[in-house]
Amino acid sequence: MTQGIVTSDFWHSQSAQVFCDHLNGQVSAFMDTILFNFHDLLMVVTAFECLLLASLLTAAAGQSSLSNRFLVLFLFCHFLIPLHELMFWGTHFRIWLLESSPDWFFVFSFAYYLDGPLLYFFVRTLLYKDVQLKPAASWHLLPLGIYVLHMLVNFYLKDYATQHTLIESQHIAYSGPHLYIETLGRFIRIGYVGWCFLLVWNYRKQLRHEQAESKTSDVAWLKIMLTAFFLIFTIDIVLNCLKLYGYLANDFDLDLLNVVGLSSYYLNFIALNILIFLRFTSFVTVAPVREEPLFESKEENSAHFDQEVAKRLEQLMLQRKFYTNPEITLDKLAEAVGYPPKKISLTIKQCYQQNFYEYINRYRITEAKLLLAEQGPAAKSITDIYFEVGFNSKSVFNTFFKRLEGMTPSQYREQLLTQTSDNSKVAIFK
Question: How many CB atoms lie within 10 A of CB 409?
């Protein structure tokens, strides 16, 4: 019995040792074929963050606006782009995936030809309230169509052996047709960012014709976001131009390409986190404006204006002090006067040579000067004054006041007090 027990224990120990040796061998083999390095993991994290933010925006209540949908699609594209880069440039992962099928490659690369238009439509629908997406807008898909046709002819319609060789050697990434189309696509992307900056500039200009409050900080976050993606897209252009130069000169500087390529991964990660930070800290409600100008430049230079409209505007301002409404807009003023917004805006420009922003705030400053002149117990604080005359922001009040009077409200009040004191002294000596 004792011998049997010993023999049994010995057999179990032998089996356990064999199993452990086998397990250690499997772990060692796995460690020798690691699918991801640190740079690959960075792309995985980038893709995950994009997908997470897109999911949060989709699920958020009250965020179903058209601009929000375009932002979600833009983020989804930037979820797909790191996956494409990982599949094609991740050495071990590429080989592992290639064993499955070469058709997996490039299925996500189309995102490079969609993120530019999606960013443009996000900015456009965010800033303008009358955007209509018409069938003619489908021309934005033309670069994508060219890229799909190129991939069909030069990759997907090839036989399995040719596809396998193109992926394994990465030769397709350094071939003429692919480089030309890819570089063109990268320039188109950065062109869309420039177009977005133009939309922001036009928005700031149009805002002064429709809003009495136009703080620069309202779209500062948008400028920061666009600048970050401008830098990313620029790095991508530099990378593709270096590849194209190497193709034409038949001399690829692989070390330089590697440095620039890795830099783009890190910049993309940084830009994404800037976007996440801005989304949860600085995204503010943007007051959308009309996309088309209210009137043409030749109309505003005309000396003839509607006298009746001008008279009713003056009555509304002087008798009802409509400018003290902190939520006043061109549309609300037009409704109160009883004329279309275009008519009101054009009359203000023709009669006073001012836009809506200047017109309303000049009345506010005139009222504020009267209140600043009050002295004694009836004198109000500057904060109370700018709220009373209709301003929502002290910075806007101070900026506009200084623009008209050449000094801040505090300096203006001190000047009045000094003048009053001097006049009192003169009266005493007399």
Answer: 21
CA dist 222 and 98 (Å) reads 41
Ramachandran assignment for 287, one of left (phi > 0), alpha (psi -120 to 50 degrees), beta (any other): beta
Closest CA to 243 of 173, 343, 157: 173
Mean pLDDT of the chain: 83
The tokens for 85 are 């880069």
pTM of the model: 0.81
Our CA angle for 46, 48, 50, nearest 5°, is 70
In this structure, are residues 313 and 362 in contact, taking their beta carbons and an 8 Å threshold? Answer: no
pLDDT (tens digit, 9 = 90+) per residue, 210-219? 888 766 557 8
Predicted pLDDT at 361: 92
How far, in Å, CA of 287 to CA of 133, rounded? Answer: 20
Q: Residue 265 is encoded by which pair of tokens? A: 């991964």
∠ CA 395-218-272, nearest 5°, is: 135
How wide is the angle at C-alpha 146 spanned by C-alphas 143 and 152, nearest 5°?
140
User: DSSP readout, 123-161?
Assistant: HHHHHBS-----GGGGGGGHHHHHHHHHHIIIIITS-HH
Sequence-ordered list of residues with C-beta below 8 angstroms from that of 311, at least 6 positions apart, any chain: none
Q: Classify 36 as helix, strand or coil.
A: coil
Tens of pLDDT, residue by residue over 253-305, are 888 888 888 888 888 888 888 887 877 776 666 888 888 877 666 566 665 67
Is the torsion defined by CA of 413, 419, 422, 427 positive or negative?
negative
Higher pLDDT, 338 or 22: 338
**Backbone angles phi and psi of 186, in degrees to 5:** -70, -35
